[in-house]
Write a structure and sequence with these properties.
single chain, mainly beta, Pnp Oxidase, Chain A, 2 domains, 9-stranded antiparallel β-sheet, 18 strands, globular
Length: about 250
């Protein structure tokens, strides 16, 4: 996968912070991503040619650019702050890891491709102040991995228990929280779209519990999806938040 540039005209670029939900990047101009590889050649005795050549995956460089008119929400996501706050301080010393996804539409307005950048660490921001045009901000970062989905759209869902003290998404966020309900030894909630199989029987691109990758937990939760119903086993604690990135077939 070489460098790919996504222009903002037919795309919806969304940032997902660790604990403060999601925000669509306002006035987004483009989104670039470039997977990085290092080639390693291995030789052996009594042979002039290389015995083996290995390509080592080393992450993904990402970059997106937006106009500065309404950049407060982006600053909030990068710093993991409430996007509805009246004052947001952009402090590079406290940048938090986030996830980025984009659903891309064709000229007919139908989503034909989606991209998910996992575990993005923002390196900083470069601001350009032109003489006459709108000032632009460029955010550079490095992602652990990136997945491109052809023919499918990404649904981001965030669920918490009704009455939870966890941060609730509000009008400044791009999404609306769902409520999970307690079952027998598990808890469930319903997606907005039927989740499609990605590989094998897996229907989840990424699962986060309180902002941490579920697979990295000491005791990961078992997550299954039947059509549009998500089941988490065992059930989450009262103030836990679960976030899923799934794929659905766009209309």
């Amino acid at each position: 996968m070489a460098i790919e540039t996504i222009l903002g005209t037919n795309a919806k670029l969304v940032l997902v912070s660790q604990t403060h939900g999601s925000v669509r990047v306002p006035l987004n101009q483009n989104f670039d991503y470039t997977p990085r590889f290092t080639a390693k050649t291995i030789f052996e005795f009594d042979r002039l040619d290389a015995a083996l050549s290995i390509a080592l995956f080393e992450g993904v460089d990402v970059k997106f650019e937006y106009l500065d008119s309404d950049s407060k929400k982006v600053d909030a996501m990068v710093n993991d702050l409430n996007p509805a706050a009246s004052i947001i301080v952009d402090d590079p010393s406290i940048y938090r890891t986030l996830n980025i996804y984009v659903n891309i539409k064709n000229s007919l307005g139908k989503i034909f491709q989606s991209v998910l950048a996992k575990g993005v660490t923002i390196k900083g921001s470069a601001t350009t102040e032109p003489v006459r045009d709108e000032s632009r901000i460029t955010r550079d970062g490095e992602a652990l991995n990136i997945q491109r989905i052809k023919g499918g759209a990404i649904e981001y869902s965030r669920a918490l228990k009704s009455g939870s003290t966890a941060f609730p998404q509000g009008s400044a966020n791009d999404g609306v929280d769902k409520a999970w309900t307690i079952g027998t030894g598990n808890c469930t909630y319903t997606l907005s779209n039927d989740a499609q199989v990605i590989s094998g029987t897996n229907k989840v691109l990424l699962a986060l519990v309180n902002g941490t990758d579920n697979s990295e937990l000491d005791s990961p939760y078992a997550i299954s999806i039947t059509t549009d119903v998500v089941t988490i086993t065992p059930c989450l604690s009262n103030n836990d938040v679960i976030e899923l990135f799934t794929v659905y077939t766009p209309a």
